[in-house]
Amino acid sequence: xxxxxxxxxxxxxxxxxxxxxxxxxxxxxxxxxxxxxxxxxxxxxxxxxxxxxxxxxxxxxxxxxxxxxxxxxxxxxxxxxxxxxxxxxxxxxxxxxxxxxxxxxxxxxxxxxxxxxxxxxxxxxxxxxxxxxxxxxxxxxxxxxxxxxxxxxxxxxxxxxxxxxxxxxxxxxxxxxxxxxxxxxxxxxxxxxxxxxxxxxxxxxxxxxxxxxxxxxxxxxxxxxxxxxxxxxxxxxxxxxxxxxxxxxxxxxxxxxxxxxxxxxxxxxxxxxxxxxxxxxxxxxxxxxxxxxxxxxxxxxxxxxxxxxxxxxxxxxxxxxxxxxxxxxxxxxxxxxxxxxxxxxxxxxxxxxxxxxxxxxxxxxxxxxxxxxxxxxxxxxxxxxxxxxxxxxxxxxxxxxxxxxxxxxxxxxxxxxxxxxxxxxxxxxxxxxxxxxxxxxxxxxxxxxxxxxxxxxxxxxxxxxxxxxxxxxxxxx
Length: 477
Ligand code: FES
Ligand SMILES: [Fe+2]
Fold this sequence. Notes:
- The protein is α+β, with helices and mostly antiparallel strands.
- The protein contains 10 helices and 22 strands.
- 19% of the residues lie in helices and 23% in strands.
């Protein structure tokens, strides 16, 4: 990749082309649980902007600039009162919309406050995550709705949200999520756990329709065939592992279907009935948060269990991993020889964290050697670079879902299962149709994705050109 393209695709601060592209989409800015305190005020940093998110007495959320308009004091430490956030320096009060409601140190007849505003952004709260729209909308223009993805359509009790900090650029965090081969190595466990004890854990279940633990399949079949296709929301990625060892005759194939959702999200299976949609939102160019929404098709999520599993590995209030660069991830060489590929314990989030932080703060993509297993990454970078150019030229990215919540669901629908070899599309459609029919909330949605992304033929796969360091030079039409 050219250095100039690497900069273009990784930098998202105000005024950058990548930042303008990102600002066409809703960004997760906080977990709703971060506001569950007697002073609901948090200071998110998003796309290089320092903001304050607060909930006033009547429940309205405000997402505003962190600096007071008067002389720049830090509103994150302001007084939450009188319907807004009041600066502790001279008492100026700001409402959730950024308007100045009071300037108590000014003369009684002062009209100053009617001329003062701080930057504020539209906010939505959905299924445990607070979203902000940081784009330029212009006076009186409403932001688009959140896209009609399953994770937003599901009732709140069928979802669970969590987040985690990564000490590197957001693109590294996304790219590990669209790389189906790494799971056979980075996440390898030498022993399989009882899959009955897998609730809430990634790669610890049995694949749909079988007793085979995912860990065994990933370990024994390290060369997946990867197919990818562009879709209206991003990309569908299919990893096929034909099962022909240990007495299996190759007539069945492990099928894992995941998705890239623009600009920085993925949707992947956790189990047969639970999906994870995860966004990788830049804090700034050197760090990011992943925000995950777990969505269950069949029953309400046991949030207490899932939260407890995840709280173990982080510190609050920043959701920073306990294992990190500073303590060498508590790497254990004995464990690496005998139990796991990484020597970092069982939490796959930590494995991914070490992989992506190990690439450096902003990975230098001018020096990499892309291989065939990187084809989804190659496709993503091409699509993203083109989208950035489109926005720079005043256009709208192709991969922008503008739905309101009542149109058909776009899924996207992931899968981890074992079906007849050579028939992954039919197998995907039929197993997904059964699961959705049985779902208390998804059965009513028109599931356009049961047979593939709406409007995108399954044959629209990427040509296999990724085994070349010039993968970007061969420009896409
Ligand atoms: S700096 Fe905020 S009121 Fe003066
Ligand atoms: Fe991973």
